[in-house]
Amino acid sequence: MNLSSTQRRTLTWIALGLAGLGLLWLLAPVLTPFLIAAVLAYALHPAVERMAARGVPRALAVIAVEVLVLLAFTAVLLLMVPILSKEIPLLRERIPVLAKGAKESLEPWLAHYGVNVSLDIDSLQQMVLKALNANFEDWLSTILASARIGGSIVLTVLGAMVLVPVALFYLLMDWSRLTERVQELVPPRLRPGFHGFMSECDTVLGQYLRGQLLVMLAMAIFYSVGLALFRFDLAVPVGVFTGMAMFIPYLGFGLGMLLALLAGVLQFASWYGLIAVAVIYGLGQILEGFFLTPRLVGERIGLSPLMVIFALLAFGHLFGFAGVLVALPLSAVLAVAVGRLRSWYLQSRLYGA
């Protein structure tokens, strides 16, 4: 079968696209820190360009922007300090009460269903208290031992913590040069269409970033106010941490909810804390998942609420954590591409025939 030059070019581009997706799938664990750095570089390079345009040396502008980002990230992590400094001593005091309550509640409940067991709560209580009373050297030796056993996870996390700032620095330093090199790879006859496509993608991605920031701010306020209404002592740090950590889909919400559950159990020592957290975080998940994200993020990038949910699940399944990070930005680019393909199809002879 003889193919025209246009058909051969189309098949070549399709093959290159499939090869790129396959490479991304194979290297997803390795690419994760570079993808994080690339997303941050895309979001931060306008600030660097503005500072450089005002006469600030580019290296100094990059360092200033990166330091501000690291300080903001550190501030979010420091929100955990008042949480842990208050909850760990309180946990030591409440362990005997919680252990006794668990024994008195679980054994009759299990016996009701025909499971007669005697829970060794005293041993578990002593083990937890020993862990909580351990000094820094004991914690450090435990961490080092676990690193020797399952060091790949520890090394991956530590490597990402070092690699992301380094990669971000070089990406911000060479951003203009990198974008020019990418544009040079595009055949001259296709550059006008390519520039229009990338300009539209840039607009959509900017709207996505602004929408995501609005969602994080709204949810930080919601969780802080909600926990305060239920009389949580740590309402503000737990609520703000949960909202700010939502830039990592699922993981940020889950970590914030665990902190809230721990705070509720320790403060109230009853079902009240668990019920309060279930109500607040259940309503928060509904508000964020079905209203805020689809409208502030999904509608800004041209995706319906159903497509936002599908994109997060699909990219997460295919590429793991790296896929979750880039799911909505890549979906925004795909939405622009699909819109252009639809316009081309409606104007083609294939549709008019």
From TrEMBL:
Principal cellular location given in the protein's record: membrane
Protein name per the record: AI-2E family transporter
Subcellular localization: Membrane
GO CC term, one of those recorded: membrane
Any Pfam family the entry gives: AI-2E_transport
Membrane topology classification: Multi-pass membrane protein
Gene Ontology annotations of biological process type: transmembrane transport
Stated family: Belongs to the autoinducer-2 exporter (AI-2E) (TC 2.A.86) family.
TM region(s), chain numbering: 12-44, 56-84, 149-172, 213-232, 238-262, 269-287, 307-339
Record-linked InterPro entries: AI-2E-like (IPR002549)
Transmembrane helix among keywords: yes
Plastid recorded as keyword: no
Keywords: Membrane, Transmembrane, Transmembrane helix
